[in-house]
Design brief:
alpha/beta, 6-stranded parallel beta sheet, 13 helices, 12 strands, about 35% helix
């Protein structure tokens, strides 16, 4: 019997048990807790709701909790939910692990979420990006609640002590050859010669952890805590990764290094809008220009603030409170 069918049967059996309206399940499907964890902490501190955190869904208890919870919050896709017949009194809320509306994903990129039919709400940061989130999850825009970003609030409050460290964090590519090509475009030798006093850290997508050999003087920060990294790096270099939203939210200078910009934007995985219209910092298309920018960085503080306002909103410390007030 297919696994999803078996899970659906187990869920149906557990549905005969009473619904626990005050039980809130946090189903973590992405490696980091992010906004999901922050909202969970707020619920535990400010309400009398019972919060159940699930990191490993491959347990029978997971099905029991999902079937009997009044509210389920998750931070990534989980296709088995499509076969779960939730109570009409239950809610399934998506608190996506990334902020902003940069790359098209999900239904907007031809990869719909089958479980989106179970979503009662999707939380995003701002009204400006709500239509893009509705398109990505394939839900009506009325289901998308622009309540702010708990992660953005935490980033804004992050105490920074910058050191001469550059974090290179390229975006995930579906094709192994494309991923290898992205790393090949970064001239590690030229970086070391031009910026001998700067420490270089590389953060790959979690799916690529351990799959590429970096020069021995480069620090592999793929598994490091993102907040700890942003607290100390002086600059973040990326191409199309949503890490640019996190970095800008923490007021870390960002440089976009995108040699294949036009081709990427024309692809199915391109951006919702042209990044050059509202970038978080300098946009360069060749490595020499990248080194020039890193050696003599420009002042993009106003540009960065505008970018943050569009993708993260006010970052006023009240996002968790708004989420809880609206939903609970």
């Amino acid at each position: 019997m297919p696994m999803k069918r078996l899970l659906a049967i187990l869920f149906a059996l557990c549905r005969v048990l009473p619904l626990q309206r005050r039980k809130v399940v946090l189903l973590r499907r992405f490696p980091q807790w992010g906004s999901l964890g922050l909202v969970g902490d707020y619920l535990a501190e400010h309400t009398d709701l019972r919060v159940v955190r699930i990191e490993n869904w491959r347990r029978l208890s997971t099905i029991f909790h999902l079937a009997t919870a009044g509210t389920v919050l998750l931070n990534d896709g989980f296709s088995p939910l499509a076969g779960f017949r939730f109570s009409k009194r239950a809610r399934v809320i998506q608190l996506w692990h990334a902020d902003g509306a940069l790359k098209r994903w999900g239904a907007a990129a031809g990869e719909p979420f089958p479980e989106a039919c179970r979503y009662t709400h999707v939380v995003c940061a701002t009204e400006a990006i709500a239509p893009h989130w509705a398109a990505a999850f394939g839900v009506d825009e009325s289901c998308v609640l622009p309540l702010g970003s708990p992660t953005g609030d935490a980033l804004r409050a992050l105490p920074r002590v910058p050191e001469p460290q550059v974090l290179y964090a390229p975006s995930f590519r579906e094709d192994d050859e494309d991923s290898a090509q992205v790393l090949a475009q970064f001239d590690f030798k030229a970086f070391r010669e031009r910026l001998p006093d700067a420490k270089l850290l590389v953060r790959l997508h979690p799916k690529l952890c351990g799959r590429y050999v970096l020069p021995d003087w480069v620090v592999d920060a793929t598994q490091d805590d993102l907040f700890e990294l942003l607290a100390r790096v002086s600059c973040v270099v990326t191409d199309y990764s949503s890490i640019m939203v996190s970095a800008a939210g923490a007021d870390v200078p960002v440089v976009i290094f995108a040699p294949d910009y036009d081709a990427y934007m024309a692809s199915e995985r391109g951006f919702f809008t042209d990044l050059r219209a509202l970038p978080p910092g300098a946009v360069v298309h060749d490595f020499a220009a990248l080194l020039d920018e890193l050696a003599a960085p420009g002042d993009y503080a106003e540009t960065r603030r505008a970018f943050v306002g569009h993708h993260l909103g006010a970052c006023d410390g009240g996002a968790c409170g708004r989420v809880v007030a609206e939903l609970f």
